[in-house]
């Protein structure tokens, strides 16, 4: 076993390339010691089967506020991995499963399908606005960011006019090195106060939105959501519902335009859109820091006994490029089937909003192909600027022309 402690996250040669370390680690060191930006050490998993095992095992928890857990970020606490964002009763065990069942009853496929025409109409509107402004434009700023924000705000029943505040609050919660503890604490207090007021208003005067329905279902089942639980739910859905999807829109389009043959294949056969979305999710080399887990008892992974108290980072991106699990793993194949990628996780903490994210990605790609068949990157792919300092990956902007 290679005991070299590598600094993490890894650097990449170009924005769309996978880190060179992945190929080194798959076989030589599948459980690799890493040093995080906090200075703490953890273990990194890169192989598909190991990542799948850990994410599916309830003994690997999200108790990252434990005294001996590694700090993922440079700040002491207060982000998505800190104690201030955790409500113990909805983060583990039966409490977590109860919460997931409540959210799942409101976050239904039927609701998402019913939203699709409105998502399409908004995507068309945003593209209209971008076309009217003329090239070059930032696809991320014009479409990739505003669409998911509008969708999640519509779903939750909050005004998307507050989107700039949401973006700042989200970034502070997803901080790795950008913000000070004082900035995070202040933003988190504002975010919590905003949603506390929103939750009280929804409880008093319910609307047609998901949060109103979630509160009503919980109360009717005599499993009343506390205000703290409802606030954390709203905050979590708002952050998760726009940040990762927004970044993925930019990355997906960049990947497809980087190799013009990919874009042309979709123009020639639009039925490939759904498969292209799945392959973009699998092929994405920059989803962020990964999925951290804290080990509550001794467990064996990859033939190695990991002691209780260990913090493990599951790199779903590395797992999705593991040649042991995917044929021609380093090739973007728009016709790949099956495609059992782990972009949305798996197990007790798998992403509840994955149907919504897929819908948004499919709609954006379909609209862009139809409205802008000549779309192209306005800068070489190696000049795209990565977002730095957050636990999620993505670009600062995606300049395009047509």
From TrEMBL:
GO terms for molecular function: heme binding; iron ion binding; monooxygenase activity; oxidoreductase activity, acting on paired donors, with incorporation or reduction of molecular oxygen. Its cofactor is heme. PROSITE patterns: CYTOCHROME_P450 (PS00086). It holds the Pfam family p450. The keyword Heme applies. Keywords: Heme, Iron, Metal-binding, Monooxygenase, Oxidoreductase. Belongs to the cytochrome P450 family. This is Cytochrome P450. It comes from Sinosporangium album.
